[in-house]
Design a protein that fits this description.
about 400 residues, alpha+beta, outer membrane lipoprotein receptor (LolB), chain A, twelve-stranded mixed beta sheet, six-stranded antiparallel beta sheet, 7 helices, about 35% strand, globular
């Protein structure tokens, strides 16, 4: 008879495509919906001028509250993946994956590249992530567990990499960095966000085959700081990601906001001491700013990933070296989940299954090839056919 551990391991194998999609979406978007109360009358501005305003923004200090809601169009996979053996419930690598689904409220404080604090609110419980100088702390009030790591030896470039993950500023930077000839960028009017006057930058793919309908960034008219980020899918319905401030203050937070001492009786887990022993261990927030990217966590059997196409229809291809999992062989607890998530497809490439979300889709062929990107299932099939 199979042990519980073996059943969990087998279940985990079948949920990998879902987790890859979810984590990829996590970096592309968080969530908040701020009701606009009257569009402010602001001086006209071109898209180029607004992009320059964002690039020139030098906001180093702020505090506030923002809301995150993410709708990938996925059935719930809560409980399908067991917590890694020996992991602490306060470990950021585990805890913040909760942000890939549902709606969440967070408090944020920042004072330059060396001090940031992010608090996830869940009823009376709180989960806090604090970066203060060379220390990174995480604390889960529900379990009374703390997690600690050293953020060692960061130069300016590394500190820049360690900005708070998932803020509208971080999301805007990633999108604008990737914008090019395949992208249409316009100014879509004005809005009121967190009581601030804002311009709305609208970004749309020019290419067909992308799952992204548009990205809308609300930019503070005075400071150039992105206040809200909304990513809409070609599937329609709720935004895939809607992240924005409900309250914001650009004043310098009190230094005590970044102090942390584990409460008496709390279980404290120390992170890996060796550089590279734990992915992202030498970065603020455990490298969470690196979560995402359409090949996140994927390695081919020879460690390589082929990139096909460009812009919004970029597809990552790898060879897993193993046949795709069969739904009818999956544990009962995940069969219904996979049936709702996957569609059988065939073509010149042979046959396989498309695991689909509103944003990231993955084609796993029966001979072990994997194609993944923010593209439609049809685009994945066409790419697999052309690769034969």
């Amino acid at each position: 008879m199979a042990t519980n551990e073996n059943r969990q391991r087998k279940a985990s194998r079948y949920v990998v495509p879902v987790v890859v999609a979810g984590v990829a979406a996590a970096t592309i978007g968080l969530v908040p919906a701020l009701a606009a109360s009257g569009d402010p009358d602001l001086p006209e501005i071109t898209a180029q001028q607004l992009i320059e305003k964002i690039a020139g923004s030098d906001t180093q200090t702020l505090s506030g509250t923002f809301k995150i809601s993410t709708d990938l169009g996925l059935p719930s996979f809560a409980g399908l993946l067991p917590a890694p053996s020996g992991s602490a419930s306060a470990d950021p690598a585990d805890k913040l994956t909760e942000l890939v689904s549902g709606s969440h409220t967070l408090r944020l404080a920042a004072d330059g590249p060396d001090r940031q604090k992010l608090t996830l609110l869940d009823g009376s419980d709180e989960y806090s992530l604090i970066h203060n100088g060379n220390d990174v702390w995480a604390y889960d009030s529900k379990s009374n567990e703390a997690f600690h790591e050293k953020a060692e030896g960061k130069d300016g470039a590394e500190a820049e990499e360690g900005r708070l993950p998932g803020t509208p500023k971080e999301l805007a930077d990633e999108v604008l960095k990737a914008a090019g000839d395949t992208t249409s960028i316009t100014v879509g009017g004005t809005a009121k966000v967190a009581g601030r006057d804002a311009y709305q930058l609208v970004i749309k793919p020019k290419q067909s085959g992308s799952t992204v309908e548009s990205v809308k960034i609300s930019v503070d008219a005075k400071t150039g700081t992105p206040l809200k980020f909304t990513l809409a899918s070609v599937d329609g319905g709720k935004p895939v990601v809607d992240a924005g401030f409900t309250k914001i203050d650009f004043g310098k937070p009190d230094a005590s906001a970044f102090d942390f001492k584990a409460p008496k009786g709390a279980k404290v887990t120390e992170g890996a001491a060796e550089k590279g022993a734990r992915e992202g261990a030498d970065k603020p927030f455990g490298g969470l700013a690196d979560l995402g990217g359409f090949g996140a966590g994927l390695d081919g059997k020879d460690g390589s990933v082929d990139v096909i196409g460009e812009g919004w229809t970029t597809i990552a291809k790898l060879d897993s070296g193993a046949p795709a999992p069969k739904t009818d062989e999956a544990p009962k607890e995940v069969q219904g989940f996979l049936d709702a998530l996957g569609d059988k497809v065939s073509g010149k490439f042979g046959s396989g299954t498309v695991f689909k979300t509103k944003l990231v889709n993955a084609l796993m062929t029966d001979d072990g090839k994997v194609y993944v990107g923010a593209v439609t299932p049809q685009k994945l099939v066409e790419t697999a056919n052309a690769a034969k």
